[in-house]
Amino acid sequence: MNAPMSRRQALFGIIGAGGTVVGALVPTASAEEHPAHPVAPLDAVAMLYDNTICTGCKACMVACSEVNGLPPDTSLSGGLWQMPSDLNSKTKNIIKLYQEPDGPGFAYVKKQCMHCLDPACVAGCPFDALKKNLWGAVTWDSSLCIGCRYCEVACPFDVPKFEWDKWNPKIVKCEFCFDQRLLHRKEPACTAVCPTGSVIFGKRVDLLAKAKDRIAAAPGKYFEQRVYGEHEAGGTQVLYLSSVGFDKIGLPKLGTTSLGHYATKVTSVIYKWLSGPILLAGVLGMVIRKNWNRHEAERPEREKRTGFPEQL
Amino acid sequence: MSARDTTGTTLVNHWQSGVPVNRGPVITDTLVFFGAVAMIGLALAAIRFWSPLGPFSGMNDAYAWGIWKTFNVMTLTALGSGPLALGIAAWVFNRQKLHVVMRTALVSGFLFYATGLMALGFDVGRPWNFYSALMPWRWNTESAMLEISICMPIYCALFLSFEILPLVLERLYYTGGERTRAVLRRISPVLRRMYPFMITGAYVVPLMHQSSLGGLLLLAGTKIHPLWQSPFLPLLYLLAAGLCGIAFVTFLLLLACLRYRRSLDLAILGELGNLLSAACFLFLAVRFGDLIWRGMLDQAFALDRMSSLFLIETTLILIPAVALRFKAVRETPRSLLKVATLACLGGTFYRFVPTTIAYHPERHSIYFPTVPELLIGAAYISLAIVGFGLAVKYLAVLPGDTGSWNHRFRSLPSRRPATRPEGAIA
């Protein structure tokens, strides 16, 4: 009964112990799923928003709500008209106004999902409910989401919203009008409806070049002479040009490394093919088996002394 | 288990094996109180099952995780890491003395994990989609959240349950008839053959998910104050789990032995104190090493709001680390209880602060748990307390002197008083 196990038995046992996990995790990630500075694919689409052109007409908000079938958020207007205070579970897109505390200056900002090149929400989502879809649109799948709200914790732009008042809550965020328009080869509702061209749609490479042309054509017009979103959090597919500081219009100061890279650079090595845990199980298992065998060998003597079967 | 009387202490009794609490009533006032809290909270949780999260909790889009996740799961499972920390000490580093306290660690750890998983179940917004956990092709293997949501239930339902199984079988053996015993005699060698492999899994799996709990916070990036946000979060979360696990088992043993008038075994408690001191020093070394490496030391001692939180946390861990180096502290139950409490507080403080107090999203918003949220959170803890209170009476959990026990168990309340012929006791 207490015959020592063969090495092969031990190995099988170790693998068996973590069996379900081991067997299933084998098709793990490819080499560089989260590079520090992701490169945008050539077909990546983008929006370019320039707040020196925006007149704050909010036509994009109406168009967004209409195309996405969102109910109006009337909580601030006493139930009279749509008046969201920020992105929320009824608002995927919003125009906000920044006014200088002491001066005539002001600037608008359009907020929606930034469609990061390596989104933190996608990196964290346990069952790929949020994913980087065709052309880089970040979309949400209701049949996969468990409602853990890790995306809300992860997103550096505070974009995903949760329907706190629904029994069957959804994650609400701009999805680049993916199902409604992109799949039908139409540009998103907000860029299509914008009367001034302050937000435009195109390929990311083209829009980035266009933004840089605008900066070059008017030196001193744009804050820091740069495009927000070119490198922020590894780069985003919504690009901003602003006349005032980005922090003033609610665009956070972020590093250039993608959060997915920061969060997984160590674990992706340790968990590669589950090699770390398997190696650990092998080493621990070997030591434990040695100690266990010694413990078992001494057991009859102890049991004889106490007169009772030994407790495990 | 192994009772080598080599220490020569003046104690009458040594801890030799798990012994059930056979005297005194099963249902006490304390148990009724915690049972009532558990019932109220669980009734609320049941309502929550048919209600949206909004009206029940203070959570919002900026603070999307409330105390159910940040306290009941991310913080309290650290206290439930005793089976991990002590198991590794006993079976890997061959600290034989600790085998006898493993049962206390296992039962408390199981209860913390089980109630934590309940908390998770009521916290997620779309639990009906969780069946994806059984479909590996749907897994995002890069996600720490996936690792936790798969590993934690497996650990609790498979590994911890396996380790607790002998306690239940032992009860069946001594209370059952000849037939039961014959079956159990047949099962026992099988369990023993599986045991070393199962405990290997029981250490690897929590090593993974306890570090992943810290890994969760990495993606939150700059939302978490730089004193806590660090690439070392997973390692520190793991070390804090070890620290809390040892500290909580020490705390629980002292408290339970006081409550049920058990004699103490200062040799074993001293061993726990030694381990706890080492765990505290190890944690502090990595914590400070990380702060120095990232050049955060001046912020840590800036004496502003966040720095004072850090200093409280460090003090709570530093005091046990230093105090437990003294034999007088280790072998005085009263001071051991005090420093173990401090270590529990310090470790849980470290686990809780970055999830809530040092968590600052862009949007200005505040989160404070609502009354139902607090009640439900308290209910999970009360349920664990009730579970432990019952377990020590019906199962041989708490360590004691084998000579004081005739291998009888109390009969369960629902059954007729068991008629046991004297001869049936082996």
Give a structural overview:
The complex is a heterodimer of chains A (312) and B (426). Chain A is α+β, with helices and mostly antiparallel strands. Chain A folds into two domains: 1-7 and 16-28 and 271-295, no CATH class; 45-264, Alpha-Beta Plaits. Chain A has helices spanning 7-17, 19-25, 59-68, 120-124, 150-154, 189-193, 204-217, 259-264, 267-270, 275-297, 299-306, and strands at residues 45-50, 94-99, 106-111, 130-132, 138-140, 161-162, 171-172, 199-203, 238-241. Chain A has a three-stranded mixed β-sheet. Chain A has a two-stranded antiparallel ribbon with strand order 2-3. In chain A, strand 2 (94-99) and strand 3 (106-111) form a beta hairpin. Chain A is elongated. Chain B is mostly helical and 426 residues long. Chain B has a single domain (17-400), classed as Formate dehydrogenase/DMSO reductase domain (Formate dehydrogenase/DMSO reductase fold, Up-down Bundle). Chain B contains 14 helices and two strands. The model of chain B is unreliable at 1-12 and 421-426 (pLDDT under 50).
Quick description:
In chain A, 31% of the residues lie in helices and 12% in strands. Chain A is built from eleven helices and nine strands.
Largest sheet of chain A: 3 strands, mixed
Major beta-sheet overview of chain B = 2 strands, antiparallel
| Distance between the first and last residues' Cα of chain A | 16 Å
Stated plainly, the CATH topology of chain B is called Formate dehydrogenase/DMSO reductase fold
Mean pLDDT of chain A: 90
How many domains, in number, for the residues of chain A? 2
Quick check: average pLDDT of chain B? Answer: 92
- Which strand order does the major sheet of chain A show? 8-1-9
Rg over CA atoms of chain A:
27 Å
